[in-house]
Amino acid sequence: MKRYLNYINGEWVESSSKKYAANTNPATGEVLGEVAQSTQEDVERAVQAAKAAQKSWRLVPAPERAEVLYRVAQLLKERKEELAQTITKEMGKVIEEARGEVQEAIDMAYYMAGEGRRLVGETVPSELRNKFAMSIRVPVGIAGFITPWNFPIAIASWKSLPALVAGNAIVWKPASETPFIAAEFVRVYEDAGLPKGLINLVFGSGSVVGNAIVDHPEIDLISFTGSNEVGKQINERAGGLLKRTSLEMGGKNAVTVLEDADLDLAVDGIIWSAYGTSGQRCTACSRIIVHEAVKEELETKLLARIAQLRVGDGLDESIDVGPVINRSSLEKIAQYVHIGVEEGAKLLAGGEILTENGLDKGNFFAPTLFTDVTADMRIAQEEIFGPVASIIPVKSLEEAIEVNNSVAFGLSSSIFTQDINKAFAAMRDLDTGIVYVNAGTTGAEIHLPFGGTKGTGNGHRDSGVAALDVFTEWKSIYVDYSGKLQRAQIDNN
Ligand code: SIN
Question: What b/e string do you get for 435-453 counting C-beta neighbours within 10 Å, with b at 16 or more?
């Protein structure tokens, strides 16, 4: 049986607990191997290794740090297929999407390697003569990562690549459901020649390893992606220590379809964003806000497409929808379907756990569609994180925007319309961090900021150049070459 150890100070080491947990394939129930269950002591060792390594890494010129990232990009490219297979086996997403996810990490590695020659600051004129003024980015220090299972390498790449190019060291707890891809990503860093101690991988539970990272006084910042509930707890714990926290949490994303939309295109966008990754993307579409004039036609077209979706093991290239991550997720989704029916929503498709045709060993849920949902129903307000979408009819663009914005989250929204005026009004008024026009709610590209408003985040962004704001401090520098004391705001007036 494959056994995955922690990676601390450049070595694969056993946890001090000497305990292991099984890692299973959500499509087949097969045990893939086992993974270390770490302790606070392991986190302590990782922090001390990170601290020692960061001391010299911060002094390495950023273009030289970036050389490692270029090699990471190259290795990810060479290992793309095996990494994608690992993702599908332990997380369940269909293989084509897993390949896309690895591609996202490759893109991010090249992009952030380029930042090694930028890391742009400002030079501004001083208000005084013979004085120079500039701001530069400096590393924060040690970054603690707590990352999710739904994009186990892409999200880890959004965080680790900017952190490293900016001169930080990392202590990383990946999701318990996806330890193997985390280990393989760290092996890429190791093979790319990243100096020891800069990335430290500590497997284990949130309550032990996660909390030890959040509470550790020498970890300077926490970057977290996951549930709202856990994000809030992290914010409270880390806030007490005045730590920087970058939180990317829930979503309740909507596609709006106006009366003038290209309906076939809208159906393509909805099917991909609602049922791709079995609805387990942070940006997945779970609400379809449709103008009443085209509601029936849209429903008919969606139902025809849902009927064609093939559900099964994502390793099979012909499958469209893989399993959901685990049993408790499956049960939660089933519970929400029950809630929807109780609330009076009309179930048009799916709504059940699938066990026939060899699916009984995995966690499969039928692609599900509700209609006649009202904006205040729980299925229209709460994050389900499964292949369930709800149609909410509206009478106008204004009502659609009001419904879109009526939830506690603000990650992604999309609008299908051919009317440029309506599209621009929507771009202005949709209260989400990401807006798509004539595309679904998923498909973020790595060179733009990723994150959201309201309950989705706390003002920070992953990915894009904005990620550097998480992993750097601004330092403002004044150089006076006048040879005399010049007092700002006094000697120039
Ligand atoms: C995500 O939702 O976490 C992935 C990004 C995307 O597909 O938009």
Answer: bbeebbbbbbebeebbbbb
Q: Quote the CA–CA distance of 403 and 387 in Å, as a whole number.
A: 21
Catalytic site residue 248?
yes
Which domains, and CATH codes, for the chain?
2-249+457-477 (3.40.605.10), 253-437 (3.40.309.10)
User: How far, in Å, is the centroid of ligand 1 from the Cα of 71?
Assistant: 25
Q: Which of the residues 282, 285, 299, 383 is marked catalytic?
A: 282
pLDDT digits (tens, 9 = 90+) for 18-70: 999 999 999 999 999 999 999 999 999 999 999 999 999 999 999 999 999 99
Read off the DSSP letter of residue 129.
Answer: T
Share of the chain above pLDDT 70, in %: 100
Would you say the CB of residue 443 lies under 6 angstroms from ligand 1?
yes
The one catalytic residue among 248, 285, 299, 383: 248
At residue 1, the pLDDT reads 85
* DSSP character string of 437-469: ESS-S----TTS-B--EETTBSS--BSTTTHHH
Query: Probe ligand 1: pick from 435, 442, 447, max atoms within 8 Å of CB?
Result: 442
**What mean pLDDT value characterizes the chain?**
97
pTM recorded for the entire structure: 0.97
